[in-house]
Amino acid sequence: MSRSVLVTGGNRGIGLAIAQRFAASGDGVTVTSRSGEKIGGLTVARCDVRDAAAVDEAFTIAEAAHGPVEVVVANAGTTADQLLALMSEDDFSSVVDTNLTGAYRVAKRAVRPMMRLRRGRIIFISSVVGMLGSAGQANYAASKAGLIGMARSLARELGSRNITVNVVAPGFADTDMTAALTDEQKKAIVASVPLGRTASADEVAGVVQFLAGSEAGYITGAVIPVDGGLGMGH
């Protein structure tokens, strides 16, 4: 049965791969992006997750196009890498506001309609960095680790309403972010991954789709790594 799915930051990379997977399976998919640029086969809502009013409007657009949102994927994220001694307060707060507080805004807007439906799936896209840490990424790591605590708290709050809340933690995937790395940096990263390669965005999307499906109905509060073994044990 077709569901209404909302994916934040769904205009490229992992977010787009997630959106396209849901759309290919017959779901009605709305993606958010700051540009609002049209994407074939998807409903697009212009939205900056730092703005609660914009988040509300994105849900309103999704609801009008496809009905009450049953699956939410909080994927929108940003980086502003810098060593802590040189990191400005704005570099720290802007990353946390997008990656963590933005996910809070999205989840908060999602839960009341889901509670009325007595069903729903909320999936946060975190990162292996949230568990391992990464020099020069204290802001990013803190925001991604925070998603885990928030997801597990929500899983306890919402379980009685048949709403699951889970986290997917990708490792190094083939995205615009990793494309900016030098060949030497990429080689060093791959050398640290037991499987010896980066992930495709579609491999991450497949795990997200599984968590949103009927076979994952008894999974909540989980952190699923898609990292080639990089973060094992964490």
Secondary-structure blueprint:
Blueprint: E1 4-7, H1 13-24, E2 28-33, E3 43-46, H2 52-66, E4 69-74, H3 89-117, E5 120-125, H4 129-132, H5 138-158, E6 163-170, H6 176-179, H7 183-191, H8 201-211, E7 223-226
Parallel strand pairs: 1-2, 1-4, 2-3, 4-5, 5-6, 6-7
Helix pairs in contact: 1-8, 2-3, 3-5
Notable features of this structure?
234 residues, alpha/beta, seven-stranded parallel beta sheet, 45% helix
Please, could you describe this protein's structure?
Helices cover 45% and strands 16% of the residues. It is an alpha/beta fold and 234 residues long. The chain has a single domain, classed as 3-Layer(aba) Sandwich (Rossmann fold), CATH 3.40.50.720. It has a 7-stranded parallel β-sheet with strand order 3-2-1-4-5-6-7, with helices on both faces. Helix 1 (13-24) packs across helix 8 (201-211). The model has no long low-confidence stretch (mean pLDDT 95).
